[in-house]
Amino acid sequence: MQQMRISQKLLLFYTVSLAIFSSCTPEKSPFDVSPSDSLDPKRMEAPYPAISIPEDADMESPVWKGIDLTPHPPVVPVSANEQLKSFVLQPGYKLEPILSEPQIREPAAIQFDGNGRMYVLELRTYMQDIDANGELMPTSRISRWEDTDNDGVYETSVIFLDSLVFPRYVVPFGKNTILSMESNEDNVYKYTDTDNDGKADKKELFASGLGRSGNVEHQTSFLTWTMDNWMYSTYNSRRIRWTPDGVIQEPTGNPYGQWGVTQDNYGQTWFQDGAGGIPQNFQFPLVYGNFGVKEQLKEGFREPFSLVKLADFQPGMRESKPDNSLNNVTGSAGNDVFRGDRLPKELQNQYFYGEPVGRIVRQVSVEKSEGLSYIQNPYREAQSEFIQSTDPLFRPVDIATAPDGTMYIVDMYRGIIQQGNWTQDGSYLRTKIQQYQMDDIAGNGRIWRLTYEGMERNTEKPRMYEETSAELVRHLSNPNGWWRDQAQQLIILNQDKSVVKELEKLVNTSENELARIHALWTLEGLNSLNLSMVRKLMKDSSPQMRIQALRASESLYKYGEKSLAKEYREMLNDSSKDVALQALLSAYVLHIDQVEELIKSTLKENKAEGTQVVGTQLLERMAKAKELAATQFAPQELALFTKGKSIFDSYCSTCHGEKGLGTPVGGGELIAPAFSGSPRLMGHPEYAVKTLLHGMTGAIDGKEYEGVMIAMDSNDDEWIASVVSYIRNEFGNSGSFVSPEFVAELRKETTSKESTYDFDELISEIPKAITIQDNWKITASSTALQGVGSTKDPSYAFSFKGWKTETAQAPGMWFQVELPKERNLSEIQFNSGEKEFPEKYKVSLSTDGKSWKEVASGSGEKGMNTIQWKSGENARFLRIEGTEKGDEPWAMKQLTLYAR
Questions:
Q1: Model's pTM, two decimal places?
Q2: Which element (helix H / strand E) includes 410?
Q3: Domain F5/8 type C, which positions (predicted)?
Q4: DSSP letter assigned to residue 461
């Protein structure tokens, strides 16, 4: 091997990738190393393989008609520097690689933390072959990269989190901390590096109820903290919010997004559809619901201008131009409203997303008219795109505004970009992939920086984790939106109210409108909004400030400032159509008194297109809600819910807030904890019932509240069941109902309890869900293969993906869990769907796996199943066994074990 000099920057990569780098000459950089060096050279030799067409293919159908079946040379991957020659950019722009394989593999998303370090989500199991084999193996990771010598190339790395099952996102959440969630799971976890070695060593539950099962392309992605201090993700019709008292949640419209959530300078969220290929929900913030606007996509928006002419897209020839390029956007991934300051002004606050099937990056321009937004490709007349590439392997899947003020583009650089369900035997797409041998090209990935001539990147390195809250305030005036967002988030996470006066000064006196807006929302996140200041802002000369004041005031209204309804009514007549529309939306979402009549009168008086579209759809939505309310719950559940609401409004709301968010007192503290999204209330119902029966004093999870929860045991069982059922199914919550019989049983069990509970005492006796860990051993007598790329893994029973038997039910079929140590098990819950529930079953426990004790038995039912045994039993093994024959397989998902 030729002896070579290795720079300090490449030393790390040399030690981990010796085989790859050994062929490099001294002049070569990592970006000159071609992935094709590791491919079988025979793939480049003629004759090329013949094309295999399914026997039953209808060659006259729009999918197949006109397909090119002649042998072609294979697509060959090239080095990053060689790939640069393939890009067609708008004048003045330049791309440069900052990170590539072999250092990273299959990058799908990036995020920067408060010190400017770049987290890379590496989906290392995505389509490693044409059949998606091993897709859910635990080999994906989240790596963290840093440019320590500030030369623009990220050379220093750690594997922050490893052995993940197709993780959905990475969210920096304070110093050395991220949020993430794996596929087919329902829980978001907070991962922290506590010993500062660069690797997460602490895992904590952050939030539940945000998961989704099924195809990996159709699950939750991009949990994003936005200007309003809420976090939004795809697929979830709810938003969540971190508070000092825990994570709360609220219902929203449907995101209709698949891979990408971002926001503009004014907090408008944008969601990126996947298969649809277009942006979604960009008219109004999602909390106000979904609105249909005719022709919001201007004529021709759906037409891409691709330079790749392989016709290798899932819809087939029906969406092919005569030159075999794509004629209709069919896939998109990753999005960003560019908010940096080191690219031309005409790009700032513009929306961008990748269309990896067309191998383009699309820029979106917005035209506002009478309160509504209409979007177009600004390069349509020139039949071009913001970025094009002739390299078929260019796969832009994420875009981000970087701390240095430029735009970063994540390129998976691979052959297949569609998941295995669309590349199955007999499919058009499989034929095209094999024609160009693109199924061989995986395991690569590049991250690009986009710059503009004459505009240098910002070389100031962020050090926000070492700064005080007062020092962070100055970043709210930064021209780069990334700095403003990070500073706002960190001040709120610090909950340092010593900066309130400085923030109020910034709102009231700054000439920088964006700084004023961020300062306003930072005050909102600190629970320190001043009502008089908000009212003053509602009369500000800037329409955008009036809009932000309206949105921020909603928090005050939720916490009891009902007098703000007067401003909402008055501002319906604002001279700005956008402000008037916002007043209408705020009045609606807060359900102010007689809001339905208010909307009707507004429609008569305000003929602006936006007001007519929004007002009409709001009335339609309210009518449907009334119809749904009558059928949402079973009769017995509806009776409990209705009675519970009446009790809550009359008694509980005084301390817990009318919206279940708690009632604030001086300094922003709460009289009592919030109910919205409360993991305690949404956990085992025994917690809420015992609290109502006997009361609670002292700190809750270490947090002191001004109020005291007194015992309510003088009320009957139905009264308590109604209240608990209501709060578990309102305020964005969705939990099981509690029956009066359940309350009666707990009342009897605790009849000797003479004093109120303190929190630790109560928690110690409540059945607590125990989370599956890697050291659990899960086995079953029969396990079916669950979908493309899956394995026969019974542990899927604990996820949304689910487990089921290969055949119909038979007596003796079993499912078993072996824990690493004994636990005081008391209950299990599982969801068997509509028809694959066990006919009859029993639950047995064992300390050694040999001697078993039956503790419960029951009959299965559709949906959620719960079975308890009177007192907890210490055991290390749990077995669920079917005891009767059935026509259907036995299935379980969302299996949960409870222990005392």
A1: 0.81
A2: strand 407-411
A3: 764-900
A4: P
